[in-house]
Design brief:
about 200 residues; alpha+beta; 8 helices; about 40% helix; globular
Length: about 200
C-alpha cells in the first residue's frame, strides 16, 4: 500500500530561514494546486492574499502575537473567505459543464446560500480549511515546510489587508525552509477514540 509521505512528514514549523526566497514559478505552482481544492457548488470562495511587502508583513506580525514565522517564512498566505462568492456571476462556476447540469446547479447555488449568513460563513471556512491543507501538503511535496495559524487579531488583519466588507480572514499558512525541526508530536489519541463506525 502506498503511503503519502507528505501527510506523514508535514509538521507545524515555527522557525524559518528569513533569507530564503521562493521563486515566482514555485509560488505560482503552489497556488495553482491550492486552486484545485474542493468547494461546495464549485464556488471557489477562497481568496489567497500573498503578503510579500516587508512593511506589511511586519505590521501583521505585530497583530499576530509577535510570532516570528509571520515575518521570516518565505511566504505568508492569508486565506480569506469571500462570503458572497455564491452570488457573483454563479454561472461562471459551471461554464464548462453540460447545459442540463448548469440548469440544475446554477439556480441551486442561490437556493442554498441566499438569506443564510451562517451557511455562507460555514461553507467559506470549510473551503479555506481544505485549501490550507492542500497548500501544506503541496508545499511539503515541493520541499517546503509550513505552519497553519489562527493566532492573530482577525479584525486588525482585515484592516491591514483592506479586505472588502464581504470578505473575512480564515487563517494563515506560512511556507518556507525550516531552521529547526518541529518538536516531537505532543500525543496522538488512539484510533478507537476518534474513529466511530456508524453511531456513537
Amino acid at each position: 500500500m502506498k503511503v503519502s509521505q507528505a501527510i506523514i512528514e508535514r509538521r507545524s514549523i515555527k522557525a524559518y530561514d528569513p533569507q530564503h526566497k521562493m521563486s515566482e514559478e514555485e509560488i505560482s505552482q503552489l497556488m495553482s494546486l491550492a486552486m484545485l481544492s474542493p468547494t461546495a457548488f464549485n464556488i471557489q470562495n477562497w481568496r489567497f492574499v500573498l503578503v510579500t511587502d516587508p512593511n506589511l508583513r511586519h505590521q501583521i506580525r505585530s497583530v499576530s502575537w509577535n510570532q516570528a514565522q509571520v515575518e521570516e517564512a518565505s511566504l505568508l498566505v492569508v486565506l480569506t473567505a469571500d462570503l458572497k462568492a455564491w452570488e457573483k456571476q454563479p454561472e461562471r462556476y459551471w461554464v464548462n459543464a453540460a447545459k442540463p447540469v448548469q440548469d440544475i446547479l446554477v439556480p441551486a447555488i442561490g437556493q442554498y446560500y441566499d438569506g443564510n449568513a451562517q451557511i455562507q460563513r460555514d461553507e467559506a471556512m470549510r473551503s479555506c480549511g481544505m485549501a490550507a491543507t492542500t497548500i501544506m501538503l503541496a508545499a511539503k511535496e515541493m520541499g517546503y515546510d509550513t505552519c497553519p495559524m489562527d493566532g492573530f487579531d482577525f479584525d486588525a488583519v482585515a484592516q491591514l489587508l483592506k479586505l472588502p466588507e464581504d470578505h473575512i480572514p480564515a487563517m494563515f499558512v506560512v511556507v518556507g525552509k525550516a531552521l529547526k525541526e518541529a518538536m516531537p508530536r505532543g500525543g496522538q489519541l488512539p484510533m478507537d477514540e476518534v474513529v466511530i463506525y456508524n453511531q456513537f
